[in-house]
Amino acid sequence: xxxxxxxxxxxxxxxxxxxxxxxxxxxxxxxxxxxxxxxxxxxxxxxxxxxxxxxxxxxxxxxxxxxxxxxxxxxxxxxxxxxxxxxxxxxxxxxxxxxxxxxxxxxxxxxxxxxxxxxxxxxxxxxxxxxxxxxxxxxxxxxxxxxxxxxxxxxxxxxxxxxxxxxxxxxxxxxxxxxxxxxxxxxxxxxxxxxxxxxxxxxxxxxxxxxxxxxxxxxxxxxxxxxxxxxxxxxxxxxxxxxxxxxxxxxxxxxxxxxxxxxxxxxxxxxxxxxxxxxxxxxxxxxxxxxxxxxxxxxxxxxxxxxxxxxxxxxxxxx
Length: 319
Hints:
CATH class of the largest domain: Alpha Beta
Mean pLDDT: 89
Oligomer: single chain
Number of helices: 15
Largest sheet: 5 strands, parallel
């Protein structure tokens, strides 16, 4: 029990140290951060993230986050840059370099290359007077907070700050671009997240498969159409082609007696749910779940363009 208690106490101490450092960094953000965001937003090429050691691992993560949220980015290893990879950095790029100390020998060639070709250099470092800090066009200075490892001084707090600041840049750029979930889906087509971000138009049955009848259609004919299309619903269109109602299995049960002598207009539900082809599949799934329905008509300018069944959503892995 004492060992478990010590482990928990150690974890809490680590998190407290890093939380304090994060709060200090947040309080210290100012014009240089805003300038960095605008510089990255204006970048016509790619954001080249670089760093050595643990900072390099963080730089890779930042590059991946930026790329997945609409800002073209890549990682360049500073040691490899000195052996030919500097050619990967173009005149329209912006360099985002990470180093706690700012005096990492392997970064020297990247710094010199950026300065030589007037490539914007944004530095994330603790030391403003370091080689990196002094050479940077924009300095994002990290607080000189203690590492959670104490005297061992292994990178912990400093890398947490780097990751968090990278996330802050990515989110600010995302918002600056007006990046939407639909945009995000372009970069994340696979997996659960990709499924949730697919649109209704990706999954729906097209118009030619949609069960549609007119308001004056006798109910026996409407039931035949519903049975043939096997979607558990019939859409009802007006003279102008607009969707004015639906007949569901529930409507059939509620109006069972005398159904054979009635018209669709007498039975249909006029207050129905619908979506557009641009609606996210995840949102359509939520609507069906909350309304306890299994089918939604897809409309454009009030006219039906398709039908979405809950099985289409389940089959795509949305829920």
